[in-house]
Specification:
alpha/beta, two-stranded antiparallel ribbon, 6 helices, Fungal_lipase-type, AB_hydrolase_fold, Lipase_3 domain-containing protein
């Protein structure tokens, strides 16, 4: 986006115990489109991936009284970033640019953090839900059914993009010790996800529709979105194509 400008970056240790792992996000603003941005990076390496998977057994944490529970690792990751300077930065940008929309996005782990971040700023009264647009890619299940229902009631603009057989939107498991549930609305690309490929708009949040119909899953489909290898593209500086 030619008129979007980076504001600040945030890099924090987001492991409450065990080896140190990193969570990363940034803020940006666009005075032409009148937008403030929060964006979050996905899982950083195998150590963090293992840490996330092991934490599947640690349960959920309450979000707000009327907004269900959040998977522990994602909850902690957001608050490490929020308390690591992101809170003050978003408040400053909102003061500097009153009336601007807030766009929130992320890939993989970053998608889960983005979901929580958007929900938090709305529930805490910092932004009105009508001013927030949330778009995630390859987002894992983030909270329980109550969280998903609160999210659906609250946000008029919220989309989870899923590439073909991407494995991550199917974890943690929907049923088990901790029942987790996706919020709406899924945008499913059942193809290679090039710029001309069609997609399905899936109003059903987490039933046996759209990407949940897949009997096979794929790790390569998780790292490739819109025909771009996300980690490689990011490491190369997100160069304009």
């Amino acid at each position: 986006m030619p008129t979007m400008k980076l504001s600040k970056t945030f890099s924090v240790n987001c492991s409450e115990s065990g080896p140190q792992t990193n969570c990363f996000g940034y803020t940006a603003f666009d005075t032409t489109q009148k937008v403030v941005v929060m964006s979050f990076r996905g899982t950083d390496g195998n150590v963090q991936l293992v840490d996330e998977m092991l934490s599947f057994f640690t349960g959920k944490k309450p979000f707000f009284d009327d907004a269900g529970h959040i998977f522990t690792y994602f909850y902690d990751a957001f608050f490490f970033l929020w308390n690591g300077g992101l809170s003050q930065e978003i408040r400053t940008l909102k003061y500097q640019y009153p009336g601007y929309e807030l766009w929130v996005n992320g890939h993989s782990l970053g998608g889960a953090i983005a979901s929580i971040a958007a929900s938090y700023v709305v529930h805490s009264g910092l932004y009105d839900a009508s001013k927030v647009k949330l778009v995630t890619m390859g987002q894992p299940r983030t909270g329980d059914y109550e969280y998903a229902m609160w999210h659906d009631r609250t946000f008029p603009y919220s989309f989870r993009i899923v590439h073909h057989r991407d494995i991550v939107p199917h974890i943690p498991p929907q049923y088990g010790v901790d029942e987790l549930f996706h919020h709406r609305t899924e945008i499913w690309y059942d193809n290679n996800m090039t710029s001309t490929d069609p997609f399905h708009i899936c109003a059903e949040a987490d039933g046996l529709y759209c990407s949940n119909r897949q009997l096979e899953t794929s790790s390569p489909d998780h790292v490739t979105y819109f025909d771009m290898n996300m980690p490689v593209w990011g490491s190369a500086g997100c160069r304009k194509l």
